[in-house]
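Quick question, first post here. What does this chain look like in 3D?
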Amino acid sequence: MSSSSSLTVFRELRSEYTTWPVLQTFLTSAEGGCLRVVTSKDEPTLVIVRYVKGVSDFSKKHVASFRSVVWNTETNLPVSVAPVKAQPGEPVLGTPLRITDFVDGVMIQAWRQPGLSPTLATRTSIGARGNFYSKRSFAELLEDALAHVGGTTPFLTSVLEPGQFVSLVLQHPEHKTVAEITSARLYVTGTGSIGDDGLVTMTSDPSQWHQRLAAYAVPLYEPSHVFADSAAAGAMLRRYALGHTWQGLVFQEVGGERRWRMRNPAYVLVRTLRGAEANQAARFLRLRAQGQMKEYVGYFREESAAMWALEQTLRSRTQGLYDAYTNLHKAKSATMRDLPLIYRPHVYAIHGQYMARFTTGQKPAPVLKETVIAYVNALASEDQQALVERPLLMAPVGAKV
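> Answer (accepted):
Ran it through. C-alpha cells below.
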C-alpha cells in the first residue's frame, strides 16, 4: 500500500480561480471560508494562507487543507503545504494508520522554488522571522538546530529539489512549552512536491524522503495499524504515556491525507498552566489570579525566581500606590505633579471610589493599605501588567498634569 497521498484541492481552486487576486477574494470571503492571508514586505510574491480558529468555516471542504499554505501570487501556485488539520475525535475504525509521536515544538515549513535558495515560513511569517518565548527569531533558532550540519540553507539545499517542500518541528531551549529541552533539535513530519498544475503529493513515510531528512523522523510506534474497536486508540495512548512532558500520538492515514491526534491528559494539564502568553509578567498575573502559582513552579522550577521577583515588584508597586495616595489625600505632603506617572490614574480612581460613597449618603470607609491591595487585585490584567512593567517616571518639568 502506498504511503503517499495526493491533494487535489489546490489544483481545483486555481483551475476555477485562474489569478491570485480572484482566488484571494474567494478564499477570504464567507463563501470561501474566511481564510486569512498573511503578506510579507520582504517576499512580495509570497503569501501565507491559513485558517483561523473560531473564524474560518470548516464546513467548506477546502478550509482544513489551509492549515498553513505558502502561495506564489505570480504563478498562482502553492509552494509549501503543511499537513492538513487533524480530524476531530478518534481515528475511523478500519483505517490503516501510521502512528507516531506527537512531538511538541514550533511548526516550520521549508521549500525550494526553481533558481532560488530554500525559504522558511511559520504560520504567521514568511522567513520565520517571528518569535515567541525567545527574543530571537524562529529562523535563528532553527539555525542552532542545524549548525552541526553546516546551517539551515546548506542543509535544506542538499535535501530539497525545486518544487519540493518539507514540514519541520523545531524544539529549542529558548522556546520551552512543557518538556525540558537541553539543546536545539529538529524533527521532520513529512515532505511533498507540487506539480505545475497545483497537484500536491505528500508523504509521512521516511523511507520515501531524502536520506538526510530520514535521520530526523519523528519516533514511530506503528507503520500500519488498524483499530478494530473504539476503545483501542485510547488504550494505546495510555500504554505509551510517558508522563506530563509527553504530548501524545498522531495517527496518519496510510495513503491518505486524514490525520487524528490524541493528547496525553497530563500534558494538557501542564500546557494549560503554561498558557498562551509570550510575556512572563502576563503569565504571572494569570496564574496569581487563578491561585495556580505554586502548582506552576512545581513543573517549571527554573521560573521560580523570576515569578517571585514579579510578586515582589507587584507588592512594591502596591505599597508605592498606597504611599502616593496617602501623601496626596491624607498627609497633603504632595501634589499630583509629585507622583510617578503610573500611579496617578490609580490614585484618582481610588479617591473616586472613596468620594462616591458620599453621593449615596453612606459614610465613606477610610482608604487603608488593604483597600489599595483589593483595588490592585481587582484591576484588569493589562492594567496590572502596566503597573508591574512600566518604569517609575515623573512628568517632565513644565508639563501639564
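The first strand starts at residue 4 and ends at 7.
Residues 280-389 form one domain.
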